[in-house]
Amino acid sequence: MAKRIRRLGVLFAALAMLLVVSGCGKSVADSDALARAKRTDKIVWGVKADTRLFGLMNTKTGQIQGFEVDMAKALTKQILGKNGKAELTQITSDTRVPMLKAGNVDAVIGTMTITPERLKQLNFSKSYFSAGQSLLVAKDSKIKSVKDLKKGTSVIGVQGSNSVDNIKKAAPDTRVLQLSDYSQAFTALKSHQGDALTTDNGILYGMSQQDPRYVVVGGTFTKEPYGIAMNKGQTNLTNAMNQALDTLQKNGTYERLLKKWFSDVPGFDVQEVQP
Amino acid sequence: MINILTNNFGTLISGLGYTLLSSIIALVASLIIGTVFALLEISHKKWVRVIGKAYVEFIRNIPLLVITMAFYVIVPQFVMQMDGFTAGTIGLTIYTSAFIAETVRAGIQAVPAGQMEGARSNGLSYTQAMVHIVFPQAIKIVVPSLGNQFINLVKNSSILAFVAGFDLMYQGKIIAATTFNTFDTYLVVGVLYLVVTMPMSYAMRYLEKHWSRA
Amino acid sequence: MQNFINAYSAVNLSYLMRGLWVTVEVSVVSIFFSFIIGTLLGVARYVKIKYFSAIVGFIIDLIRNLPLLLILFFTYFALPNIGIRLSVIPASIIAMTVFESAMLAEIIRSGIGAVPIGQMEAARSNGMTYSQAMIQIILPQAFKKMIPPLVSQFISLVKDTSLATIILLPELTQHAQIIYGQNVNYTIPMFAALALLYFIVNYALSVASHVIDRRLN
């Protein structure tokens, strides 16, 4: 309790200072993120906390866990050395681009597909995971693939994910409902708000593992190479990220982490997702 | 900024339409429900008063988001199908009804007790006296605050964005996510909200001054 | 019933309590700052200094007429553009403070307006300066009368912190959503817990306001 009261005191002080000091500094987003990371010995990562297997909040410890979280930590150590700290900030598909562009985070590792539109706005590392979009439905559902998403059906997606754009192309007659994150979206599916939930297969397998009354159907109908996203113009950080990814792939860390999270997921092929 | 507005004009206007539709439905419905609970609160029977008071106090002290999410998540699992727009509008109605109940109660209680007694002694029933004597006077006190409730409703209806309710905020979030132009999008969305709420709020201030003089 | 017992496990309850603590923390700090800023703005609007009061008034009206959700987005995503990198807790506090200050300013302005003009005149004729009279005579009387609307605005603030889930503030509602998001059977127990916890906090505030109001008036 005393510690919490103290934290409250610190917050008061910090905010009071913030109100006094007018913000006249240069935009955080424009300064060299790698130089800042080296100076402060930390990289601020945006990670998912709503996505099982990739980044999920553990309510017991209050920590976020998953493949991408482990990758973020390993990459940080690779770039900054043993003392480097990975600071984790929660993001959703909806908030990750503004978070990056505003400079709230240095890099996002959060089930983010490298797309041409996003490349105009952001830098991406090489791909570290090959996913593909699919559908999650209740076990007894009549919907078996994208073709069954006809007029009168509705499908749940997440704001800011490119899977909502893809599904509009693949099934133009279905109604798309966009929720703010994967946890909300899965809850909406369980509350019968839509006939199916669509996003990348890796995320869907995580949901199916959590609640086996829901299954992934119809195979994948897109290719979704995940990359680490950074702000446009952060060339130094992007290069450092690519080098670190290379090293992790060569020294076996990457494969070990992949197996740790995905080897016992039914229906999932660890070989298939390696880029 | 102009690009955001022109490229997404139809979507934004349809969003504004849902925002207004939800606000109007919720205003009418919460006026009815609020009046009912106000009457319960001033009933002569103690247990009826307790019910009215409990409803108002309970609803006033929990967040709109919690009420709305409960309708979006729980009701479809156990009771009936309910889409985001409906769940959001019901949430808004219930939330606002507690505030309107308090206003209506205050309005009725501001009518001197002698009015009711006089009407009763002239042979009117409780209901008749309420409808013909007390309500018309109470309305004068209640109506100005309804305008403020409507402004609150327009702002609060942004809660629909949490439940895929197709309102202005929901469309704004989606446009921001697809154009990557967060700042400008929310600026446009903000202006659209202000186009509705600012004139209303100035009109209310004018009316309040006028009404109190009359 | 079994769902309730499982849902209220020690792990889940302590996770909920951590969320409640963030709700309280953000609320208390925001109430503190918005009370100060709201008072300053309320006075600024009341005193009618040419142009200045009109501009302050217009800004207050702008903020009051926007949804809080929008202000939350702006604070979190726009402030870093001028060199301030905020984590989610301070960003939420700033957004809440901006919004609630504007709401409080209106309450305080009308509170000051309700103090009889003779009070100010009497204080001035006794040799006080305008600001002395305002601080020592007018504001204390105004606050006394404003306790119910002020506290009900504070209650709104506590409730409104739940909206910051949209920028992922780890507060009570978000923690409950995470728990029921991971197990659908916990949905009803979590909503029951949310309603109860918010009710306790806010009802305590409203009882406190009645007690203080009765003591002072």
From TrEMBL, chain A:
UniProt keyword list: Signal, Transport
Domain of life per record: Bacteria
Keyword Cell cycle: no
One Pfam family of this chain: SBP_bac_3
Domain Ionotropic glutamate receptor C-terminal: 51-264
Domain Solute-binding protein family 3/N-terminal: 42-265
Keyword presence, Signal: yes
Signal sequence segment: 1-29
Family indicated by similarity: Belongs to the bacterial solute-binding protein 3 family.
Protein name according to UniProt: Transporter substrate-binding domain-containing protein
Species for this entry: Lacticaseibacillus hegangensis
UniProtKB/TrEMBL annotation, chain B:
Keywords, sorted A to Z: Cell membrane, Membrane, Transmembrane, Transmembrane helix, Transport
Signal sequence interval, chain numbering: none
SUPFAM superfamilies the record matches: MetI-like
UniProt similarity note: Belongs to the binding-protein-dependent transport system permease family.
Species for this entry: Lacticaseibacillus hegangensis
Record field: transmembrane: 20-40, 61-79
Keyword Transport tagged: yes
Entry-linked Gene3D superfamilies: MetI-like
Location, primary (coarse class): membrane
Protein name (record): Amino acid ABC transporter permease
Residue span, ABC transmembrane type-1 domain: 16-204
Compartments, record wording: Cell membrane
Keyword Cell membrane among UniProt keywords: yes
Automatic annotation (TrEMBL), chain C:
ABC transmembrane type-1 domain ranges (all copies): 20-209
Gene3D superfamilies in UniProt: MetI-like
Matching Pfam families: BPD_transp_1
Location in or out of the cell: Cell membrane
Record CDD domains: TM_PBP2 (cd06261)
Record keywords: Cell membrane, Membrane, Transmembrane, Transmembrane helix, Transport
Membrane topology: Multi-pass membrane protein
Transmembrane parts of this sequence: 20-44, 51-76, 82-99, 190-212
Protein family membership: Belongs to the binding-protein-dependent transport system permease family.
Protein name (Swiss-Prot/TrEMBL): Amino acid ABC transporter permease
